[in-house]
Structure formats: structure tokens, C-alpha cells
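Subject: Sanity check before I submit

Could someone independently write out the C-alpha cells for this chain? I want to compare against mine line by line before I put it in a report. The sequence has 365 residues.
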Amino acid sequence: MFSLILGILLSDTQYTYHVYKTCVVYTQATYTIRVLRSIRAYGHDRDRKPGNKEVQATRIEAVKIEPVIVTACRFCGSENIVRDGIRHNKAGDIQLYSCRDCSRYFSLNLGFEKMKASPQAITGAMQLHFTGESLRNVQKFLGLQGLNVSHVAVYKWIRKYVRLMEKYLDRITPKVSDTWRADEILVKFRGNMKYVFALMDDETRFWIAHEVADSKFIHDARTLLRNGKELAGKRPMTLITDGMAGYEDAFRKEYRTMKGPRSKHIRNITLAGERNNNKMERLNGEIRDREKIMRGLKTPETPILPGYRIYHNFLRPHLGLNGMTPAEACGISIQGPNKWLTLIQNAKKAQYPTTVNGLTRPTKT
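---
Independent answer below. Compare away.
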């Protein structure tokens, strides 16, 4: 196993970037890692704290997220492996591999270790739920396939894998446009009405960020705009919202600068004409359809909202984008017939540290 890494140091008076780009594909444990670009950014001088120059975590820009395949032995790192039988479990069949160098057997079930259900059943349940089916309807469908699980188990699958994918995907920088939209929608949380604020790119329909607030009249939208700026790696040149005062205050504090080019805030929108927020209202309709099936959400920390954001951005084709997903419009392509499986396996793979001897162990998160 070997890798060739080129380090390029780019610096100016305000920012410093360390750019690393791999020139070859190297093998790590039982799978192949493809690193396209890794950028570590250091903030502006005024944002630096004494004794701590780093103010932003390492972010990864990926063009293609490919399915994980077995290319090397998990014990010795040798690529001299062959398929050698199938393990028949209650959840399904798992391919076994044999290493001809160390003579050991192993299997790969990355991301689904110790799960009683098969990866196909779990990803199928997530697809059904985020396309509009209730937890109990998903449970009934799995029962027809011979898998007897409760609706609580289905919810635990969603919670587990949404958290896993969210940590991974938030490190990927989408190539969004310079025009963003923001709006809020009233949603029921365990009988109490709260507002869900969402931030979306205008051209690609990429859902950038969201947050939950008790009221829109006294809410500070700075957190929403700041999270969007951190995820996209830039500020928009145009922000389109309604006339809520919180947007104007947050825009001045987060996006307005003294140097050009300066961002513009459009807040006098109408239902008809060019100055409308119809694209954002379409996203609100998707959230409403998902919430209506569940008859309200449970808590503001629910995995349903970030899970639907993943589904909206990376799996749901949009007619307004000629059948592409917002992620594809942003230059992020998910490969493979089962995109849920590709995302889960790559998210799990990202938890493994890089080694030089082929032996790896997952990091604790």
C-alpha cells in the first residue's frame, strides 16, 4: 500500500489554505479510499483566537461518491484475495473472502455490522419512509418480505443512519450558486406549534441548512445563515426572503461586508411576478407532506428533518433540474444502484483512520 500526496501551500494576507491531492488510489484495510481533495482553511485574522489559529475543521470536496468494494485483506492488507463461499445468515447472504497470502477468511458488511436485518431491507425501509410511507406501513411491507420487525426498529434504523450520513455529508462542500432563499414553515412538535427555518440554493434547489424555533417574531436567524455559510464555504451575493425582521438583522450581521462585492437582500417578495419565493414554498410543501403523514414530529432534535434533507439533496430527482438531484446539480454524484447503501458505507468508511500497514480500526464517535 502506498500513496503519493502533493502538498501545496497557498497563502495571502488574510487566508491560508493547505491543499492535498492524491495522485493514486491507495488501499486501506478492506476497501479502496478515493480522496479527491482535502482543504484545511484558516480563518481571517480577526476571527483567530490567541493560541488557536485553526477556526474551521477540515472539509472534503468530493465529486463522486462510489460504492465500497473489497480490494484487500482486512488483516494483512494484501490485494491477493479471492471470493471463497457465502455465509448464510438469517438476515441474508454475505460474501466471504480468502487471502492467499495470510490464509485467513473475512467478510465485509461495512456500516451494517451486527445488524439482524440485511442492508437491502434497511435501505429499502428508509427509501419507503422518506418517500411518504409511515413507520407502520414500512413495517407491514417488510413483513410481506418475510422480515418481522417493529415500527420502533424501523425508527431506530433511521435515527442511526441519518446521524452517520449527516456527519459525513456536512463535510462535503456543494458548489451552490450566489443566490439563496430562506423561509419558515409552521410544524407541530408533540402538540406544540414551532417554526422550521430552511435555507436553500436558488439554482440547484440544494437544501443548505435548517433549524427549529419557537417563534418567528423574536427568533434570531443568524445561526441559520451562519450554518449555511460554513457548509457552502461562502456567502451568497443575493438572499431572497419574506419581510420578517429577523432575516434583515441576521443578514446585516452575517453577510453584509464593508468591502465589495457586497451582498444584496431582497425581502419585498410577492405571490406573482419575478420577485416571488415560489421555489422555497415548494420545499415547504415537501416538508408539510412528510409531516402530515406522521401527524406532527416528536422533538426538535428529530432525525426526520435532517434525514429528509439528505433524501431531498442526494436521492430525490427534481423535474426542475431535468431529472437530476440537487447534489448532482452541485457537482456531487452518488454512484451505484442503491444510493442509500453507497452513502452509508462511505460514511462508515470515513470513520476509519489512515494507516500504513493495512491494519485499521474504527474511530470512536
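---
OP: Matches mine. For the report I'm noting this point. The longest strand covers residues 179-189.
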